[in-house]
Amino acid sequence: MMLPKLFGKSRERRATVLASLILLQALCALFFIGDVITDLGQGEHLDDLHLALEALAAVALIGGVVFLMVELRRLLSRLGDMDAGLRVARGQMVQVMDRFFDDWNLTESERDVAMMILKGLDNATIAQVRNTAPGTVRAQGTRIYAKSGAHGRAQFLSLFMEELMCGDFDAAPGADGTP
Amino acid sequence: MSLPSEQTAGGRESARDVAVWDPLVRLIHWSLALTILLNGAITDDESKLHEWVGYVALALVGIRLVWAVCGPKNARFGTFPPSPARAVTYVRAVMTGDRSVHLSHNPLGALMVYNLWLTVIAIGVTGYMMTTIRFFGTEWVEEAHELIFNWLVLSVALHVAGVAFDTWRTGINLVRSMVVGRKRIPRGARRK
Description:
The structure holds two protein chains of two kinds. Chain A is mostly helical. Chain A has two domains: 2-86; 104-165, Arc Repressor Mutant, subunit A, CATH 1.10.10.10. Helices cover 79% and strands 0% of the residues of chain A. Chain A has helices at residues 2-41, 49-103, 108-118, 123-130, 134-148, 153-165. In chain A, helix 3 packs across helix 5. Chain A is rod-shaped and about 90 Å long. In chain A, 18% of the residues are buried. By secondary structure, chain B is mostly helical. Chain B has one domain (18-184): Transmembrane di-heme cytochromes, Chain C (Fumarate Reductase Cytochrome B subunit), CATH 1.20.950.20. Chain B is built from seven helices and two strands, in the order H-E-H-H-H-H-H-H-E. In chain B, helix 3 crosses helix 5 (107-131). The radius of gyration of chain B is 20 Å and the shape is elongated.
């Protein structure tokens, strides 16, 4: 859950850096263009080495700006796609979890605990959050694993991982260990 | 251990963040505000610095106009066309208590955006004219420069008032969205 967030942050920072570069480079380009135009207006000619170099710099800077703008647009649309994809995946994942939980006939408190297990909380933390004894959480965990047919936390998690990776969210829950 | 609280802070139930302003739009916005502040209040009107800050302001608007043609959706002209008719419809809707959220500029705000850009361009052009031999010392150019600057001050004041009003009306902090780029849309709000 942390990874995609960090990933998104670094891309956002990249987009900001790109935007700053575009701004600075565009300002430089406009400066050179203005300079070339005033020089031409004062009767200088493009075959003058100084002026030719300035014109070349202006052209190069404009090319750079255009390239960076295209790059920034691509990065922004990729950021948008990732955002939408994550949102869809999250929404679907919640649906999948609900269907699993329904299938296994989990009680309300077992659902809570199962959700926290999926989020990676350990028993002590779950007990703290739910204001119960660690022993209760351990018992609830055992019952959840039994109902889902998993042999423990790792296998329980893998039931959901598998669902995510097979790519078909409409597939029926694959656990056959309903009591 | 912070996970449960993070879930509510992430606001899955109450609100969600939508990216609206790309970094280039934001940088240009605040840079332009800075140049206006500098030239309006700080630099000496006769100084070279005043001229250069003015050129930078012109360039910023120019870059923004290019980005409004080839940038991402929310930055483009097509998303906020300058349409008085739409602005009137919008004002009516606001007065009848419509609270739908606009991801880009709202139609009234869009008019202000075009007004601000044109005003800055007009100030820049008259300012440049004063530096040319042809118009140097011409009375009407100088008067136009100052008059249009007064119009800019009024526009900025209205702009800030509009932002404050819309923030109060929709509950979306617009200043924050121009800094971080995202609008926090309350759950259930109608989007446009």
